[in-house]
Amino acid sequence: MGKRKHNSAEARKEALKSQYFAKLNNAPTSPRKMRLLADMIRGVEVNRALAMLRFSKKEASVRLEKLLRSAISNWEQKTEKKAEEGNLFVSAISVDSARMLKRLRTAPQGRGYRIRKRSNHVTLFVDSKTINENQE
């Protein structure tokens, strides 16, 4: 059993070497609010996505913009090209729920209401259109 897990982990690591991504863990925003922005930029060209996030009024857009810049930087480092040459787009983005802080708010007659402060994990994949056309 240990060897099989090891082999699958090695295969997963090799697959990640050819992908360009960035992760944001424990962002203190509810997953539902972050998914609104993620759906907005999924499949969009990178410069357009940056502009959309830059001018969005939502608070989570600041974190997502920083994450997108990080993914672009990772792509530039791995391919040793500039992002302008690459025809980059957001190929995939996923928002998963993370830990939940549970707090109490005082309520009438000695009771307490539970408050759940949610957070999320975001994984953003960037790819260039020229690579995808060659694979298909």
What characteristics describe this protein?
flat; 3-stranded antiparallel β-sheet; alpha+beta; 6 helices; 3 strands
What name does CATH use for the topology? Ribosomal Protein L22, Chain A
Number of strands: 3
The first-to-last residue Cα distance is: 36 Å
- CATH C-level category: Alpha Beta
The CATH homologous superfamily name equals Ribosomal protein L22/L17
**Which consecutive residue ranges, at least 5 long each, have pLDDT under 50?**
none
Globular, elongated, flat, extended or rod-shaped: what is the shape? flat
Percent in strands? 25-35%
User: What's the mean pLDDT score?
Assistant: 91
Short description:
The chain has 6 helices and 3 strands; from the N terminus they run H-E-H-H-H-H-E-E-H. With 136 residues, it is of the alpha+beta class.
SSE arrangement:
Blueprint: H1 2-17, E1 20-27, H2 31-41, H3 46-54, H4 60-79, H5 83-86, E2 88-106, E3 112-128, H6 129-135
Antiparallel strand pairs: 1-3, 2-3
Characterization of this structure:
The protein is of the alpha+beta class and 136 residues long. It has one domain: Ribosomal protein L22/L17 (Ribosomal Protein L22, Chain A), CATH 3.90.470. It is 49% helix and 32% strand. The protein contains 6 helices and 3 strands. The protein has a 3-stranded antiparallel β-sheet with strand order 1-3-2. A hairpin with a 5-residue loop joins strand 2 (88-106) and strand 3 (112-128). The protein is flat, with a radius of gyration of 19 Å.
